[in-house]
Amino acid sequence: EDQVTQSPEALRLQEGESSSLNCSYTVSGLRGLFWYRQDPGKGPEFLFTLYSAGEEKEKERLKATLTKKESFLHITAPKPEDSATYLCAVKWVQDTGRRALTFGSGTRLQVQP
Amino acid sequence: DGGITQSPKYLFRKEGQNVTLSCEQNLNHDAMYWYRQDPGQGLRLIYYSQIVNDFQKGDIAEGYSVSREKKESFPLTVTSAQKNPTAFYLCASSPGTDTGELFFGEGSRLTVL
Fold first, then answer.
1. Best of A71, A103, A108 to mutate (most B CBs within 10 Å, chain B)
2. Residue A89 exposure: Cα atoms within 13 Å on the Cβ side
3. Is the pLDDT confidence value at A95 over 90?
């Protein structure tokens, strides 16, 4: 069973068409949820950290929210330069007591002009 | 500029050959990581290091080796024992390991011919 699931796998939007990306997780002992942006052929770039349900973070056209078992990345009036793959990652405590960071497989966003 | 430098960006290898990927950081971070990224999958942790001269296996360490002789450097060797080495390899660093806010390099794409 996947511990971190992102949906949809791919999303195509028209410029200005707002939408949301989802990251759901089944792990327990959450120690933080992290959003990254990755451009093709590049390394991920950190966007946001969320620690507790109800928390929200914003940056330009992006807003990240967190509930008990999922996070949303809301994209308001997107522009073509927002096209990228968005990754989420969850920091959690394993049975061994070790803290692990588990990544989802990402949502590939394409914004057409 | 502070950051992480990975080299080479592209690498081709014949089956049976070992290759070493370079990772250098000038962020003065204690922790460094190596991840592997395959299409449709989340980033998977190969090895990580919390301090010089110490490193730990991640989730998929078989067929790989690392060293951490200097704080700035964390090279990864892909050995001939790695059954499916063709992938995109990402090096990252962070001030400590108790965070999910990682700084990534640009990646190295390894292709086995």
1. A103
2. 26
3. no
